[in-house]
């Protein structure tokens, strides 16, 4: 429990540090004054005020963090004190860099983590090859074989190994599922199977197909680069498919995880080993990046959307209106987080 908590704090702390570090670095590079760079939320535990009057803080609640930039607040008197160094004093492109490089850093960080995992533990192949089939299960019964490369599941194109699990998660497995595969002979075949209904010891219903997905492990720097690049693309694809499924009903809001759910996942992953923890860190970093890019108020993507509107209309959106919209968005996010956390707690029991 204690080890899980420490790992949870380290993983989330690193992801937040990387994200906020991107905002911080590009604010400094573009000449925007930074009031505070904080890791964590709540009361200040440790702080250091630099010569340029930027406060570096570590706060009590080890979840989240922030960078406070000059000009973010509407206070005109305060803006006069930092004239020329306010966010609004910079060009649209400079402000875009400040807003975007938080998520940009998350994507770079994820790539480096995956590269490191590949170099240390070997690079798993992302090719969607079925490594084995379980005897007596639907996949084997219809003719799917070891070595088949999956091209499609129902109407979904499969490019990466993770796509197989992804589409089998969002599809209704109580109905027949169609697999299109490329055989080892080079021929293509199409199979339709009905997943086997099973009930576990706790009474939960599951549907089994009987395909084993165990990637081939490759060694070397080139293989690791290829793995990091393809795995990051696969995670991006997963994120956008899941987000799309939220709107179509394929994935329910109750299935989302917040800090409690992530804590539980960290606990399970640590039992697998460091390689799995590195992969989880990369996955969470990309998740943070993609979610923050959504054009929703209070997210980086929401602020970028206002920059795009400004570029189109030729003048900034009224600061009071923009801040009000972001405040409403922030309140909605807090409500969503409370709901997701409540569901996470219910799942534990």
Structural write-up:
It is a single chain. The chain is α+β, with helices and mostly antiparallel strands and 349 residues long. The protein folds into 2 domains: 2-121 and 286-348, no CATH class; 127-214, PDZ domain (Pdz3 Domain), CATH 2.30.42.10. Helices cover 52% and strands 19% of the residues. It contains 10 helices and 12 strands. The protein has helices at residues 2-29, 76-81, 92-121, 138-142, 161-170, 221-248, 259-270, 274-293, 300-313, 319-348, and strands spanning 34-49, 55-69, 123-124, 132-133, 149-153, 156-157, 177-182, 188-193, 196-199, 205-208, 211-212, 217-218. The strands form 5 sheets. Strands 6-5-7-8 form a 4-stranded antiparallel beta sheet. Strands 1-2 form a two-stranded antiparallel sheet. Strands 3-12 form a two-stranded antiparallel ribbon. Strand 1 and strand 2 (55-69) form a beta hairpin. Helix 1 (2-29) runs antiparallel to helix 3 (92-121) and helix 1 crosses helix 7. The relative contact order is 0.12. The mean pLDDT is 88.
In brief:
The protein is an alpha+beta fold and 349 residues long. It has ten helices and twelve strands. Helix 1 crosses helix 7, helix 3 packs antiparallel against helix 8 and helix 7 packs across helix 10.
- The helix-and-strand class reads alpha+beta
Shape verdict? elongated
Q: Give the SSE string.
A: HEEHHEEHEEHEEEEEEHHHHH
- Largest sheet composition: 4 strands, antiparallel
Q: From the alpha-carbon coordinates, what is the Rg to the nearest angstrom?
A: 23 Å
């Amino acid at each position: 429990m204690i080890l899980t908590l420490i790992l949870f704090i380290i993983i989330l702390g690193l992801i937040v540090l990387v994200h906020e570090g991107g905002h911080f670095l590009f604010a400094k590079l573009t000449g925007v004054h930074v009031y505070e760079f904080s890791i964590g939320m709540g009361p200040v535990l440790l702080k250091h005020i630099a010569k340029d009057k930027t406060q570096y803080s570590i706060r009590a609640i080890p979840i989240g963090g922030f960078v406070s930039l000059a000009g973010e607040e509407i206070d005109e008197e305060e803006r006069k004190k930092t004239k020329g160094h306010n966010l609004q004093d910079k060009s649209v492109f400079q402000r875009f860099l400040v807003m975007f490089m938080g998520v940009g850093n998350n994507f770079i960080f994820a790539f480096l983590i995956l590269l490191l995992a590949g170099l240390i533990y070997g690079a798993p192949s992302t090719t969607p090859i079925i490594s084995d089939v379980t005897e007596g299960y639907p996949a084997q019964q219809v003719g799917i074989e070891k070595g088949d490369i999956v091209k499609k599941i129902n109407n979904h194109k499969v490019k990466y190994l993770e796509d197989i699990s992804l589409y089998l998660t969002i599809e209704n497995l109580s109905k027949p599922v169609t697999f299109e595969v490329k055989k080892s002979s080079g021929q293509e075949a199409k199979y339709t199977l009905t997943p086997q209904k099973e009930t576990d010891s706790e009474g939960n219903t599951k549907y089994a197909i009987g395909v084993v997905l165990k990637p081939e492990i490759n060694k070397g720097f080139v293989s690791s680069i290829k793995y990091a690049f393809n795995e990051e693309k696969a995670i991006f694809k997963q994120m956008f498919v899941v987000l799309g499924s939220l709107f179509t009903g394929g994935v329910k809001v109750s299935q989302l995880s917040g800090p409690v759910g992530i804590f539980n996942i960290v606990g399970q992953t640590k039992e697998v080993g460091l390689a799995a923890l590195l992969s989880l860190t990369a996955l969470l970093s990309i998740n943070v990046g993609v979610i923050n890019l959504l054009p929703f108020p209070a997210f980086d993507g929401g602020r970028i959307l206002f920059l795009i509107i400004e570029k189109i209309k030729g003048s900034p959106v009224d600061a009071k209106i923009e801040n009000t919209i972001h405040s409403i968005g922030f309140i909605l996010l807090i409500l969503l987080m409370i709901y997701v956390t409540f569901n996470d707690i219910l799942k534990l029991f």
